[in-house]
């Protein structure tokens, strides 16, 4: 039976392969199923939001666990007989004779079109303790998780000027804010973001230029202890980290799909086409503003 399943997978040609089983991939599979396309949704089981205790900002799904949301969406896909969902970790993808091939060891899945929707990985700073608390009090988005930490003393770690907006927007729910530049010189930041000093002063945001060397947590008091380079310890109730991301799979590179300067897949139309004919991209892997968490 197992060998037969592999054989069938190798000869069936789907209208579309969708790689990625979170919000973007599930939505694409649903839409394609509703117009009768034969779709294979391939879900690796690895998700960027797996540490999230609830989704926020999504009407009718407020506070829902991400896994519960995915399970319900997959159940709804069963309504459509032309949509198939599998759990598989794809090793590589390639284009061959007008088809797209997705390889899982000795199994090959074939499709006429390919949608990349496998998301991104967050690039975390090499600060001891940081990864341990990522998604567990250290948050990535003020809209997604800031409200749950309202009223706490707030820290924002900024490694690039483009990630400063979150600190400024947090003021209404976290009036006690410290901006950690972690070694970035404020004068250099001013050269990139004009009038940033006055904007921070107006928002009553304190600026800390000393680098964070490690992060610990006082669980009893529910506060983070940020150990600075000179030995000073600064306590904050929560920490926002505006972070760069990277593609979670090598598939764009394998196919020659272009990325932009922030490592997102470039799409060229409202239909999320890429520079490679027949390859589309959707979700976090193809936009600077990341989606459902």
How is the secondary structure organized here?
Layout: H1 2-11, E1 13-19, H2 23-33, E2 39-43, H3 66-77, E3 83-87, E4 92-96, E5 99-104, E6 107-116, E7 120-122, H4 130-133, E8 138-139, H5 142-145, E9 154-158, H6 165-169, E10 177-180, H7 186-192, H8 196-202, E11 206-208, E12 212-218, E13 223-228, E14 233-236, E15 238-242, E16 245-247, H9 251-255, E17 279-281
Parallel strand pairs: 1-2, 1-6, 2-3, 6-17, 8-15, 9-10, 9-15, 10-11
Antiparallel strand pairs: 4-5, 5-6, 7-16, 12-13, 13-14
Helix pairs in contact: 2-3
Description:
The chain crosses the membrane at residues 12-32. GO terms for molecular function: oxidoreductase activity. Residues 14-288 form the FAD/NAD(P)-binding domain. InterPro entries: FAD/NAD-bd_sf, FAD/NAD-binding_dom, Ferredoxin-NADP_redctase_2. By secondary structure, this protein is α/β, with parallel strands linked by helices. The chain has 2 domains: 8-121 and 244-281, FAD/NAD(P)-binding domain (3-Layer(bba) Sandwich), CATH 3.50.50; 125-242, FAD/NAD(P)-binding domain. The protein contains 9 helices and 17 strands. Strands 1, 2, 3, 4, 5, 6 and 17 form a 7-stranded mixed beta sheet that branches. It has a 5-stranded parallel beta sheet with strand order 8-15-9-10-11, with no helix packed on it. Strands 12-13-14 form a 3-stranded antiparallel beta sheet, with no helix packed on it. Helix 2 runs parallel beside helix 3 (66-77). The protein is elongated, with a radius of gyration of 22 Å. Mean pLDDT is 90; it is low at 1-8.
